[in-house]
Amino acid sequence: MSFSSLVSDIAYRKDADRSDDRDDKRPQLSSGRSYASTAATSVSITGDIKSQLHGGYSHPLARSWQAERQLTKSMLIFPLFVSDQPDEETIIPALPNQHRRGLNKLVPYLRPLVEKGLRSVILFGVPLAPGAKDALGTSADDPKGPVIKAIRLLRRSFPDLFIVADVCLCEYTSHGHCGILRDDGSLNNALSIDRISDVAMAYAEAGAHCVAPSDMNDGRIRAIKLKLIEAGIAHQVVLMSYSAKFSGVLYGPFRDAAGSCPSFGDRRCYQLPPGGRGLARRAIVRDINEGADIIMVKPASQYLDIISDAKELGKDMPVAAYQVSGEYAMIHAAAKAGVFDLRAMAEEATQGILRAGASIVVSYFTPEFLDWLSEK
Ligand SMILES: [Zn+2]
């Protein structure tokens, strides 16, 4: 029996053949109108039956099954700006709902979030004390500095919280660049990676579960990995590389928050040009070969093709995406202007990032997602 005659056969059955306990809203075929509707169906399915897709995603649960990855709380890393002023709690005007916090404010703020299921944070140090910045970024690994003290405090206070430490010099250098400069103002790669790997080691030794160098200097992943091996702690520290970090205008609110704006020039010689897909692929391959455990792409929504490339090039590795301050601020601004609903856009943007290939999302929306994901 052909499929179309099977449909006709089913349609001509008596109504009495069907049980009366159907509880869905599907229309009951009556013999009176079944001929016309069946005929129409027969016409359409004599064409290409593969064109019949709607049934696969008509139910909300079936719709969710269409995604390869669903956001879970454990995929989220929440960025925190930790100030060297212990009692500080200052709202960051360009970043709605985000604060710079001193050590005394961190635990009370985080406790309810941890109780809601917060699994991971990434720490950015914000030195504000006079004289805290110099040409070498000396305060980056000061044992009394905000990041090292925050790592120890959070490890003690929240034993299950996974602590990521961003590793860079730009918050700590007087010139605001991500490394050590030559006299002509250009970046000295060799000195920079030596210094940055020392800073990464200091964070790892303080107890960070993961160190994440964001400076984009060539060779820093290898330098950090070798020092971790030498110190005998390589087996317990995740090395997450900001491999494909693009220059652009989406970091403005972050620089306000972290006070890391370069005092001269820009970061174009070490951050990637927005059109540089091939360069990003080479940077990803470089960092995989140097020993990175996780590849990160930053920003996220404007670089979904790069996230997809990272997943292809590092197919056996987790890929992280950083939805940066400008992306977050844009979503807030547009929602405030009535363009769309904040939650709907936050969810759609994150879904896009996961669909592209990320399984880790660094997101300022983390506190909201902890609530939203609990409602589902
Ligand atoms: Zn930097």
Descriptive tags:
binds zinc ion; TIM Barrel; 14% strand; globular; 13 helices; single chain; 376 residues; alpha/beta; 10 strands
Description:
The chain is of the alpha/beta class and 376 residues long. The protein folds into 2 domains: 1-44, no CATH class; 76-375, TIM Barrel, CATH 3.20.20.70. The chain is 40% helix and 14% strand. It is globular and about 75 Å long. The protein starts with a helix and ends with a helix. Residues 1-22 and 30-37 have low confidence and may be disordered. Zinc ion binds at residues 168, 170, 178, 214-215. Residues 14-35 are annotated as: Disordered.
SSE topology:
Layout: H1 3-11, H2 31-45, H3 60-64, E1 76-83, E2 89-91, E3 99-101, H4 103-115, E4 120-126, H5 146-157, E5 162-167, H6 189-206, E6 210-213, H7 220-230, E7 238-245, H8 252-258, H9 277-290, E8 294-298, H10 304-313, E9 319-322, H11 325-336, H12 342-356, E10 360-362, H13 366-375
Parallel strand pairs: 1-3, 1-4, 1-10, 4-5, 5-6, 6-7, 7-8, 8-9, 9-10
Antiparallel strand pairs: 2-3
The structure holds zinc ion (ZN).
The site of zinc ion has 5 residues, from loops.
